[in-house]
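Let's practice the habit of predicting before peeking. Look at the sequence and jot down your guess about where helices and strands might fall. Then scroll down.
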Amino acid sequence: YSAKWLELLKETAPKATRIAVLVNPSNPSHTRYWRETQAAARVLGVTVQPHEVRDPNELAGAFAAMAKERFGSLLVLPDPMFLVRRDQIVELSAKSRLPTMYGLREFAEAGGLMAYGSDLREIYRHAAGFVAKILKGAKPGDLPVEQATRVELVINLKTAKALGLTIPQSILVRADQVLQ
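Done guessing? Here is the structure:
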């Protein structure tokens, strides 16, 4: 998803050439996401810099560093700790006036600018189907490995307005949901 996150963020905030990336180095998937983000940044001609947060108490400091370094936008990688602290992250993004892309729709619903990723609720419903099969006697090793097939783009227009951003029509027409 990294390339799409950066592409959408760059299209929404085209003047932003320096993008901060909120990373949890304790999350093993962030290593892959970071490599993909760096590759996508080279293609798009933007600079990305990680801001590591291992503990929720480090969030305010990470945002203070981003403000001091004058980043033009922010990418928040999907992470359970970030999801739990989404209200705080969305608030800090707003105070920092950073157009922010999130990997989970729950952030846009909490007031974040935009999110692109799989719907967690759909993933959980699908997982419940696997649990039901296992409870009915299926062996977990016999069940197929599946990935989410639906990815959605959610835009929060109220946040865009607060940031003084006009969401390009090219993004609005691709959005699965536009929050007013």
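How did you do? The longest strand covers residues 18-23.
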